[in-house]
Amino acid sequence: MQRAGSRWHIAVFLAPAVLVYTAVMIFPLFNTMRLALYTRIDQERVFVGLQNFQTLFGETVWSEQFWNALGNNLWFFAIHMLVQNPIGIALAAILSHPKLRFAALYRSAIFIPTILSFVIVGFAWKLILSPIWGIAPTMLDFVGLKSLFAPWLGKEAYALTTLALISVWQFVGIPMMLIYAALLSIPEEIIEAGEVDGITGMSAFWKIKLPLILPSIGIISILTFVGNFNAFDLIYAAQGALAGPNYSTDILGTFMYRTFFGFQLQLGDPHMGSAIASSMFLIILIGVCIYLFAIQTRLRRYQF
Amino acid sequence: MKTQRTNVFSAVLMHGALITYTLIALFPVFVILINSFKKRKAIFRDPLSLPDAETFSLIGYETVLKQGQFFSYFQNSMIVTIASLFFILLFGAMAAYALSEYRFRGNKWMGLYLALGIMIPIRIGTVAILDLMVATGLVNTLTALILVYIAQGLPLAVFILSEFMSQVSDDLKNAARVDGLSEYTIFFRIVLPLVRPAMATVAVFNMIPIWNDLWFPLILAPAEATKTLTLGSQVFIGQYVTNWNAVLSALSMAILPVLILYVIFSRQLIRGITSGAVK
Predict the structure, then answer these.
(1) pTM
(2) Does the N terminus or the C terminus of chain B have fewer Cβ atoms within 10 A?
(3) What are chain B's domains?
(4) Domains of chain A, CATH where assigned
(5) Out of B208, B255, B274, closest to residue A120 by CB
(6) How far is B75 from chain A (nearest CA, A)?
(7) ipTM score for this prediction
């Protein structure tokens, strides 16, 4: 057999994927970080070292925007962690109940918002919350809470929280599905052993199931983190590139887009944009490393 | 007797919670859809009622079909999504086969290298991607989008497919080798058909984010001829913001194709997620 001699097929099998992935993903990623070290003076690209980062963190015009966007982004993430994931876990816990009927139907229906584009979701909610149309005030009137209504998306104090909750509404299906899968994989014997010891119902969930699905909760947290820190579409669709009112909904994604692509009268600056992108990369990298080294290694994976 | 009553009670509670949340999930979609078929006055007077003989109107859809290039947008989205999925699956399966079937130096590192992209969003490199597309003259072409989506989809595809391919029986492949089939024939004729379910899972996972993406169409292909449905509806709705009939109809038309795809593929998608493919 001539096997040992010709191993070319391995290269042929690997080449297309490696080439496209390297050229369109890895190379631009590093090139973006390299571009962050340059600037444009009189149509020429000049190496300036870390000067863009000095501008970004040193000049108040820039640093104020950056910290504002980062702060907003953290709040956006916090709401997802505090609202989306608990609701997702609760729904999954109910759905995984062995005697529940119509589980498949509920599951498919609750997942529908997740498949819609941000553009649809952003505009649909904008219309529903609009004081002109009046669906939201009418609905609140049903339950006697009309006085609570405010044009939430137009108020600086509420806009970001409202958008975060819209995003939660859209993506609750993902933690629900992943936790549901994790709950189903818990073997019956463990639950029965608990029942023998008198642990049933809610306490079975808190004492037996929840500890067993912690690794899945860890995965959901890191997916939420990465997703939130490169979010852009929903804010852009609902509030535009200026992330109004008065930048109160600006997050890192919209800030980077505005800087690099330009808006209204301001010209885009790819080099400052790259500096922001590099900062985002660093933030995401730190998050992923914390997950990989601090969280995942501590959580024991149970193999059934 | 007592336990039976608590069982009924908890069943009612569970269904109550699920129905409430299902209503919350579906309500906005429902409101948009029913109002897109109503006259302007009825939209405002009675937004929560179904269209009837008196309030029914297709004026919004007429505006959208007349003003918007929705069929061309739809076509662009179809081309981009299908071409991207095809190459993600082909290239992804080939690489996954190389990694799971053959022992070679650097195998593990290659696997890690390809897996990097699962956690790092491709958007971070946008500035340089635009640079690259400008340099190669691919700006405002669908090819640019397809290339980006292939790169974005490959990491997870390779990861999932190589898990499945390592389960394909060695005896089968060795028997084929004894029969003198080439490695390529073994891959295309024997292995690929066996991992078809995993390929379907990968396809469904990638389909929705590609179809719904706004970022890359906005930056790489904003020209009229290359707009995707997502970008097209964003621009259209932005222009017609005060024409409620048109906006509601445009939203409904954007919802419909995704909803149809979901109805066709939801079983596959849910099975894919729950089978632990993303663990």
Answers:
(1) 0.89
(2) N
(3) 2-62 (no CATH), 68-239 (1.10.3720.10)
(4) 8-47 (no CATH), 57-295 (1.10.3720.10)
(5) B255
(6) 17
(7) 0.87
